[in-house]
Design a protein that fits this description.
It catalyses: an N-acyl-D-glucosamine 6-phosphate = an N-acyl-D-mannosamine 6-phosphate. This protein is of the alpha/beta class. It has 10 helices and 8 strands. The chain binds N-acetylmannosamine-6-phosphate (LRY).
């Protein structure tokens, strides 16, 4: 089962359809329509946040889903599928791939990622586990824990990598990741143009995730406004 899912996303675009409560498009229905549009336009998978969005999307789109739950715990910086509770909840939706923060940061409730992975391997042996990483140290940690997929999701989004962009220096960081593992790598995080998506595939990624550049009109609008504004100033 795992192999067939990997093959179905190989070489393709996975569209992240997410909108948090504070975002204009926050709605499971809207996210399901975004996913439908993505599928009709050639996406090979969907990345989705929250049980309600995952279920709404999977009701209308039959594509492999990377499921997460974003939840903020006051005592931790880890917010993507942070504890065993959230990982179990996403696994229970039937998502083919479950992604979680795999940084070396401390998790809520004193939980540790090794125990989470071990428990989930027993409870959901067929679920593919994707490590959302932000550094080479995270990648090495995720490899040691036995994740199935490495994602660059958090590069540029952690305190240590704030301001970094995976495309810098012709994806120098991504090349480092690809060089230290034979695991499938999914490029994710600020892949905001077709050219960048093409480049990461040329470099050898299993697949590429793009989110805001496709499904966050507020981000897209800001880029247009900034570009036009640069002319008038
Ligand atoms: C940092 C964080 O919370 N990233 C989230 C991970 O699920 C999503 O909000 C991103 O949209 C997704 O990773 C795709 O990245 P981009 O939107 O840059 O194409």
């Amino acid at each position: 089962m795992k192999e067939s899912v990997m093959e179905s996303v190989r070489g393709g675009l996975i569209v992240s359809c997410q909108a948090l409560p504070e975002e204009p498009l926050h709605s499971s229905f809207i996210m399901s329509r975004m996913a439908k549009a993505a599928k009709e336009s050639g996406a090979v998978g969907i990345r989705a946040n929250s049980i309600v969005d995952i279920q709404a999307i999977r009701d209308v789109v039959t594509l492999p889903t990377i499921g997460i739950i974003k939840k903020v715990y006051s005592e931790s910086d880890v917010f993507i599928t942070p504890t065993l509770k959230e990982v179990r909840q996403v696994c229970a939706t039937g998502c083919e791939i479950v992604a979680m923060d795999a940084t070396i940061h401390s998790r809520p409730n004193g939980e540790n990622l090794q125990d989470i992975v071990g428990t989930i391997r027993e409870e959901y042996p067929d679920t593919i586990l994707m490590a959302d990483t932000g550094s080479i140290e995270d990648v090495e940690f995720a490899i040691k824990l036995g994740f199935d997929i490495i994602g660059t999701t958090l590069y540029g989004y952690t305190t240590e990598t704030e301001g970094c962009d995976v495309s810098m220096n012709d994806f120098a960081y991504l090349k480092e990741v690809l060089a230290i593992t034979d695991l499938p790598v999914i490029a994710e995080g600020k892949i905001d143009t077709p050219e960048k998506a093409k480049r990461v595939m040329e470099l050898g990624c299993l697949a590429v995730v793009s989110g805001g550049a496709i499904t966050r009109p507020q981000e897209i609008t800001r880029k247009f406004v900034a570009a036009i504004g640069s002319v008038n100033n």
